[in-house]
UniProtKB/TrEMBL annotation:
Pfam families: Glyco_hydro_46. This is Chitosanase. InterPro entries: Glyco_hydro_46, Glyco_hydro_46_N, Lysozyme-like_dom_sf. One of its GO terms (biological process) is carbohydrate metabolic process. GO terms for molecular function: chitosanase activity. Residues 1-17 form the signal peptide. Keywords: Signal. It comes from the Eukaryota. One of its GO terms (cellular component) is extracellular region.
Length: 307
């Protein structure tokens, strides 16, 4: 995988009870832990203080083209940070999840932020990669009530100035900082939905993108939950009784119900489904022209594939 290509490519149901909310977060942590070993295997020793990717591949994934993958990543990045290149985004949001940082808003609550930090800082020495921050960010996983809350600020102690240091590295070391985020996003989220894509016979870029965006916002385990409900309501793709466009429409509807049932900060995020609704209505299921125009939270974005 070419390093300059990675840098150019880059840019968090119906759950009715609290124990189930906790359960999906625990499942997400387990999935990320399993996939993080893959990330570490992909990164070799530092060369010239730069992250080194071990090996090359013809494409990022056999499920879709690199151009489609690029647009998929950008859709989610815009939903999370209102930017396709929000690697330096960092704040303690009012969602109970501690610090949210990076282009897909990795969080300190359930450990995705810690994985980016470790991957990057294991090979770096700078204002972000200090022993004090290393200890504090490690202790922030599961801090307070973040495993069972969808609202409220919940920053762990010892992280004052962390976001300033994060933003500085996004500027000072843009390529490697973006690269670390990409690797964790792919292994910790995209790779966890590969089995679901096959299980539910999803073949279009838009269908895969919807599953990926679900995994980012609500955890990989939620993908199958929503797909099962979609099958129950409109039929399954394997039997050919429903078009993929109609299947995606129903999946998006099931996801909207899920967000509302989650409550808290998630109720206000139903608008992030608008790009998927617009694209399926336009029958642009495979990003055919390698660019798409989407509307999110009242703003229009033209996303051009970087591939």
């Amino acid at each position: 995988m070419r390093l300059h290509f990675l840098a150019s490519l880059l840019f968090v149901h119906v759950v009715n009870t609290l124990p189930l909310k906790v359960e999906w977060r625990e499942e997400q942590e387990r999935a990320q832990d399993e996939q993080f070993a893959t990330v570490q295997d992909m990164v070799g020793d530092a060369t010239g203080d730069s992250l080194k990717i071990v090996g090359k591949r013809d494409s990022i994934t056999p499920l879709m083209t690199d151009c489609q993958f690029s647009i998929m990543m950008q859709i989610t990045a815009v939903a999370e940070t209102s930017s396709t290149t929000g690697y330096g985004a960092c704040d303690t949001l009012d969602d109970g999840q501690g610090i949210s940082a990076g282009y897909i808003q990795f969080t300190s609550c359930h450990g995705s932020l810690q994985k980016v930090y470790k991957l990057y800082c294991d090979q770096k020495s700078n204002d972000l990669c200090t022993s004090d921050y290393e200890s504090a960010i490690s202790a922030a996983q599961g801090y307070g009530n973040c495993g069972s809350s969808n609202s409220g600020k919940n920053q762990a102690p010892g992280l004052d100035g962390f976001c300033d240091a994060w933003k500085k590295q996004a500027s000072d070391d843009a390529d490697d900082f973006a690269k670390a985020q990409f690797l964790v996003a792919k292994a910790g989220y995209f790779d966890t939905i590969v089995d679901s894509v096959s299980k539910y016979h999803v073949t279009t870029a838009l269908g895969i993108a919807q599953m990926f965006d679900t995994a980012i916002q609500m955890g990989p385990g939620t993908v199958d939950t929503l797909a099962d409900r979609t099958n129950q309501n409109v039929g399954n793709l394997e039997d050919g009784g429903v078009s993929e466009a109609d299947w995606i429409k129903q999946y998006v509807y099931e996801r909207k119900l899920e967000q509302i049932n989650w409550g808290g900060a998630y109720v206000g995020t139903t608008a992030r489904l608008q790009p998927f609704e617009e694209l399926v209505a336009a029958n642009d299921l495979n990003f055919d022209h390698n660019d798409v125009t989407i509307t999110l939270y009242g703003s229009s974005y033209t996303l051009v594939a970087k591939c």
